[in-house]
Specification:
7-stranded mixed beta sheet, two-stranded antiparallel sheet, 13 strands, globular
Length: 254
């Protein structure tokens, strides 16, 4: 199973996976019946989650809603640390994750808009370098696992900062590595070399511990929130949350 999943996500474009993978995985979920773990996004229980990743991580992917460890953590953070489920909010979700779309659309307090340059799941076709909305349009912006793909991450974050309302906030997650500083080289275009240096064929940089300070160059105020470390360890195990994941919580800056 690990080898199959690793091959599929490495070589099949994300836009196609988003259209068909959930049908296959929901059938597969029958074989994972149990109650040892629970997905807090869809409230389903399993004996374990599916492996996932190019170097497959055990106990990662919910076969029903396709939430990964980071998605379950973000959902819990939104429930416990924000007013996302109660306040009237206008939300822009860039590169929307399948596990969130229907659930966020169903929330009566939200005006929820999705956008992406190629995803068939998004309602607005847009380039994050030039977001097609006016200044101060949104209370909340989500943009997860996008910045490692884009040509200019600082410009993209400037655009997010621009469209956030005063007192607006967002979450911008990316893979972070044990590096002092981010590595990037725009002259590297060969997919195999990008995979070797940056972790994936479609990545253009590899973020280090300077991620928050780097994105803050855009004007956004980026905070490192260690929410997962404040949780009951049994809850972390129950939902298979990533124990070292940092929530990069952003506020509109100047």
């Amino acid at each position: 199973m690990k080898a199959v999943i690793s091959f599929v996500i490495r070589y099949i474009p994300r836009k196609y996976l988003q259209l068909v993978s959930h049908f296959f995985l929901r059938v597969l979920a029958i074989f994972y019946t149990g109650s040892k773990v629970q997905c807090n996004v869809c409230d389903s229980q399993f004996r374990k989650f599916l492996p996932y990743g190019r170097k497959a991580r055990e106990n990662a992917l919910c076969p029903k809603c396709l939430a990964l460890e980071r998605h379950r953590l973000m959902w819990l953070f939104l429930q416990k640390e924000t007013n996302f489920f109660t306040a009237p909010l206008k939300v822009l979700h860039i590169a929307p994750e399948l596990c969130f779309i229907e659930r966020m659309q169903a929330l009566p307090n939200l005006e929820y808009i999705t956008g992406d340059i190629e995803s068939p799941l998004a309602t607005v076709k847009m380039d994050v370098h030039q977001i097609p909305f006016e200044n101060n349009s949104f209370d909340v912006v989500f943009c997860n696992h996008v910045m490692e793909h884009v040509d200019d991450d600082i410009l993209a974050c400037k655009e997010i900062n621009r469209v956030l309302k005063p007192n607006g906030w967002g979450i911008i997650q990316s893979p972070i590595y044990d590096l002092k500083e981010t590595i990037e080289d725009k002259s590297i275009t060969d997919p195999r070399e990008r995979e070797r240096l940056f972790g994936q064929r479609d990545h253009v940089r590899k973020y280090g511990k300077d991620y928050a300070s780097r994105l803050s160059q855009s004007g956004l105020l980026v905070e490192e929130n260690l929410f997962v470390q404040q949780l009951d360890p049994q809850l972390v195990i129950q939902h298979a949350l990533p124990p070292q994941e940092i929530i990069f919580y952003c506020k509109k800056g100047l």
